Structures are given as structure tokens and as C-alpha cells.
Amino acid sequence: MFTHSALFTFVAGAALLFVPGLILTYLLRLRGLLALSVAPAVTFMAAGGLAVFYSKGGIPFTPATFFFGLVVMTVATMGFARLFRLPIIGRRLSSKTDRWIFGGTLVVAIIVSVLPMLVRFGLGQPIQQIDPAFHMNSVYLVEQTHAASSFGDFTRMWGVNTSATTMPAGWHALVSLFATESTIIQATNSMFVLDSAVWALGIAALASVTFPEKNWMPLAAIAASTLVVEYPTYMHSAYPALPNAATISVLPGLLAWTLLALFRRFRREVGQVSQRTVVGWILAISALVTALMLTHPSVGLNLTVLLLLPLISAWIGRAVTLAKEHRRKQFFVELGTAVIVFVSPLVSLLNGAVRQKVFLMLTSYNTYPNPSPWALIKTYTLWPIFTTDHAGAWEMRSQAVVQLAIVLLTTAGIIGIIIHARQQRLLLWALLSTMLLTLTTMIRMGPLVSLAGLWYMSSHRTMSIQAVPQIIVMAYGVGVLFGFVEWSYTKFKGVTGSDSFYRRFFLESRTLTFMALVLVVFGSVFSMPARANFINRVYDPSSDFKTNVASAEELEMIKSLKSEITDDGLVIGDPFNGSTLVQSYGVSEVLFPQLYFRASNTEELFLKDHFNEIMVNTEVCALLEELNVKYFYEDSDYFNYGADSRVAAPGLYDVDTSVGFTKIAEGGSATVYRIDVCENLGE
What does pTM read for this prediction? Predict the structure, then answer.
């Protein structure tokens, strides 16, 4: 399963994701965990932004031009850091032992997320679903055209002759830099592993920023993350949304840096900083998030929903303080600043296309209400599916154990923060807002129902955001529970005063480190059955998951086409039955690179309805020649999503291939032919 090619692709992807971003974050004076967690976001920003800039200037987007752009960005970043006097922030763990323990736990947490895929399928097996097929084929398009702008360069994905289309393309631009035509699937699966690493690093950085005096918190946060299956495992398997998943992975690190920039209580870790520095941080984060929206617009929405209630709460507290101190001028200055911060995102609605898209999302997902008593439980336990498909007794029991652990740690963390951690109560406001959003996506009713449309009314997307503050709360719950157990023990033994373990539990990092390591083992063991279940359903070609349409034999046949299709001819076939994977494997471009038919593409629509009339309808051959279509992908298995695919594309079935077609490959239920009939008719 692990080939030298796959290993090289992964290493190249890891270097590309972290190194350019680390150079720029270092120049922005970020260090340690904070720098590591923010670096991938900076790299995504650079890839998406440079792709747009190069397209406007007619410059090809290649590794060479990308790194040249990084040189220019490096010089600009140096000037920016000096102009705003940015201080060094971030820190290393206190001792070598702590670093080894932390690093080992981090590796374990990453492996837990991806182990079922790595063990059974490696990096070379595709997910046969709408989003992965589209995104892999988009990377192929970049490889062919060296154009990766979000504004128009991906129009081909919607049709050969169609109107210009805008789509967030930063993810595809970045992946194209370390993928080749034949390693697109490997590069895509490598991003699963890399996103898991970025997520774990970000969680640790956020824990370090929110609880700077507790050295055990980053370790406990990583340990608590092993209980959460929704992200990254579910978001990368049963519900894959690859660019969206990438922007979620960088969210904890972005939130950590934003907290330091916006909230005075968190800046105390840095010390006193000038107003110019704060402005510099805010400008840098704003520019980063804005450019990151070229990877997926949800990154701005995600950060907003996490910060909105904490910002309102903090500003109200600040306003009360200023009013009591009769500092009217400062009060109105900060009031104006707050209004600008909250109103400025609405400026984007002045753009007609943006306004129309937002309106559609706010109104298109208001389906029938679905009140359920389980919805609140699912929300609180970060588990959108109460029972897994085809799950056995062990899977069901382990799922229940994980849910109970999440309930226990979350509840203990909330209580502990309310009682002991007054400075960190803003974390609870972030958790509350994301929980309300998740609950709305499940019951599909309430005052937030229209707003939830911005997340496609999907609990999977919102739970991944909710997991960010909840994991930190759970990590704090580890210390609270340990403190309660030791307090009970000391009471029972009659120990008091300075010898009380309860008085020392915030300082006793060694013992809490042990507890965190125990939690890592617990989370790894009991969450693994659900992870394996989700991953097996989509990576195993023999799975009966509704989107799996190509068997192992069919996939092997597609890979073998590389030696049979040596020209630039396109392949026509029903995209719902495997033909899109011909492009994903880097064999050849396909006429239908994604899994739906666009109403405005009259030529393609004519072929999908009338291709089987090729012997009698001369217009079919004329269009095939115009579009350079030379191969036909036929699949005798008509069913996809439990429906007859011939209903949507009747012209791609019941084709008489006995005359004028030359079979070049066969595997499973699929056969690929070279189309010779049009040449024969011309003779």
C-alpha cells in the first residue's frame, strides 16, 4: 500500500504546507506551537492569492513562480513586521522531557485519526464521492493549464463551452504544486494526514494561549481531541469536503492568534504591547483570513461564529468599566471601533454576486423542521450519527463509552471554568454559539435557521467548528476531574494545608501529564471502531456505501488506461458511474469531470441524451469531433445512489458498440472503447 511515490508525495506535501508558512510566520515574530499552527494557513493564503495575481498578469502558476512569489512576500512581511513593531510571541515547552512527551502524544493523535486508511488502503485509493472527484479533477486541470485563479480559471469543470465560473481554488492551487498527473489521488489523501496534523497542532496552540499558566493543557487538549471523531475522520471520509476541511484544520491556530490580538486578558502572556502592534496583528489576521477565503469562504464564517459572542461579552464588560470611570472619549472611540468591526463584513454584500449567493444560502436550506430529543444529546456529545451503519456490538459499545467520556469531560470543564477560570469564560461563549448553530442544523427550526444555511444546514460542518472550543473545555475538564478525585482522597485521608493535592492540582503538571496520556490511550482504543467504520465505507471499493460505483477491478482497469490512451482525446461516459475517475488518476481529461449536468451546457447535454444515436445522427459525430472526444466509457451497472442512472443520461447507455468501437480495456462492470465509428462514417 505504501509505495515510494506515495511517500515522496506525502513528504513533499508536508514540506510545502509548513515550510513557506513558517518562513513568513517567523518574520511575523510568531514562535513555537503558535507559529506551527498558523503556518499552513499562511501557505494556503499564499497559494490562493498568488494564483489569482498570476492569472491577472498572464503568469503561469508553477512551483517556480510560486516560490518567486514567496520571495516577494518575504520582503513585504519583513517591512510589515518592522513598521508595526511586532513582538516575538509563542514559546517552547519548558523541558526536553516535556517536549518528547508532547511530540509523542501529538504523533499518536494524528495516527489515530488516519490509521484505518493508512493500514488498509494507503494513500492510493480514491474516495468515490461527488466532492473528492470534483476536487481531484480540478487539480488535474491546474496541472494541464498552469492556471489556478478562483475567478474563471476553473470554468472548464462546469463545461467545455460555458459561462465563466467563480470558485474557491486555493486548495487546488496548493495541491497542484506537489502533485503530478499520476499522483493526484496520493496528494489528496496526503492532505487528510496533513490536515490531521495541523488540527492537532492548532488545538495545542489554542490550549496554550487560553491557559498559559498551565503547562499540561496543550497535552490534555491533544488527548481530548482523540475522542472527537467528527473532525478530522468523518469530515475526510463519510462526509468529505476537502477545501472546507482544510480551512477547518487551520481554525484553532487562527483563533489562538486572534485571541492574543483582540483580548487584553490573553495579551497579558505577551506583556504590554503598543496600540500600533495590536493594529498590526489585526491587519495581518484580517488579510490572512480574507485571502484564506480563496480556499473556502467558510473560514471567515467559522471564525466569526466563534468570536461573535466573546467579542460582544468582552465589549459590554469594557463599556461598563469605561462608563464607571467616566472615560467618555475612550468609551465612544471603542464603541465606534466595535461598530466598525461588526458592520465591516456586511460591506461585501455590496457586491451583487456575493449578495445573491448569500441570499440563496440563507433561503435554500430552510427545509421541514425536525425536532428530536436526540438532537441535544448529539450536539453535546459531538456525535451526529447515533448509530453507525453496519456497526457490530463492539462498535456500538465503544461509541457509547466515547460519548459518556465527552459528556463527563465537557461538563467538568464548564463547571471548572465557571468556578476557577474567570479569565477564560469567553471560551464558554464560543462553545455556546457553536452549539446553538449545530442544534439548529439538526432540528431545522428556531431563530438561527436561516443563518445555518450559510453552513449548508450541515451538522458535520458546524460540529467541526464546535469541536474547537469544546476540546479545550474538555482538556480543562481533565484537570478538574483529577483535582476532584485528589480532593476526595485527601479529605478521606485527612490531609490538609499545603500538602493538599487539591491545592496543588493546577501546578502538578507531571501527574496531570500522566492522566492526559491515559486519556490518549482511552480515546485511541474506543474511538477507533467508529473511525474504521467510516473510513472503510468510502475507501473500500467492495463497500455497499451509496456512492461507491467502481469495484477494485474497475479501478485497476482505469489505472491501466495510461498505456492505452496516449493522445489528448477526451473520454465520454456517465460521470455517476466511474468515468470521472479516469481524470482523477491522471489518465485523460473527461467530458464530464464532475457529478452533475449543467443546464447551460447545451452541447454536453445533447451528447448525454443522444450519444447512443451515433450511428444514425450525424450531429453526434460533429460534436464529438468539435469537443475532441475519442473514447467511450461504458458501465453495465446502471445503479448509483440506489437509482437508475439511465434516467439522467439515457444517451450514455444502450450504445451499440459491436460496430465502430474498439475495446481497449475492461474491468469489473466497465469497458472502455476507442470511438472509430465517426471516422468510418467519414470514409
Answer: 0.91
